[in-house]
Write a structure and sequence with these properties.
Helix content is 28%, strand content 35%. The protein is an alpha/beta fold and 142 residues long. It has a single domain, classed as 2-Layer Sandwich (Tetrahydropterin Synthase, Chain A). It has a six-stranded mixed sheet with strand order 4-3-1-2-5-6. The longest helix is centred in the middle third of the chain and has 15 residues. Bound molecules: zinc ion.
């Protein structure tokens, strides 16, 4: 099997709904995302001969992932998230807020990203999302 590996980083703020402790505050991370694309075979002809995929194609998809999360506040789409989002939207700053249907943990985010890549036609082997330099979550499906 061939596995292509690619990586991006993005800055994102989040809020862990229902969490008690230091991370109960809105805070941010520099996320590091490592994506692995798999294939049993290589293209036999044309522009992609001898390749799993063009690295440029993968980069284009990863740019979409980066744009979705980068420099945004990601909130869970629940009552608490809506209250925070609503109060921030009354500020003149035009904060960029994205709502997602899950608690914004590295686990849920890595599964979300895995599915975003799949929906865009990539054959994903696994996604690894680092929330800090020493903590990451790997998501894969059989
Ligand atoms: Zn955090």
């Amino acid at each position: 099997m061939f596995i292509l590996k690619n990586e991006i980083q993005f800055d994102m703020a989040h809020y862990l709904s229902g969490y008690k402790g230091k991370c109960a505050n809105i805070h941010g991370h520099r996320y590091r995302l490592i994506v692995k694309i798999m294939s049993e075979t290589l293209h036999q002809e044309g522009q992609l001969r001898g390749m799993v995929d063009d690295f440029g194609n993968i980069k284009k998809v990863l740019k979409e992932i980066e744009d979705f999360f980068d420099h945004k506040l990601i909130l869970e789409d629940n009552e608490e998230g809506r209250i925070i989002g609503k109060s921030l939207s009354q500020m003149p700053n035009n904060f960029k807020i994205i709502y997602v249907p899950y608690r914004t943990t590295a686990e849920e985010m890595s599964r979300h990203i895995f599915n975003m890549l799949k929906e865009r036609g990539l054959k994903v082997y696994e996604v690894e999302l680092f929330e800090t330099p020493s903590n990451s979550c790997i998501y894969k499906e059989d």
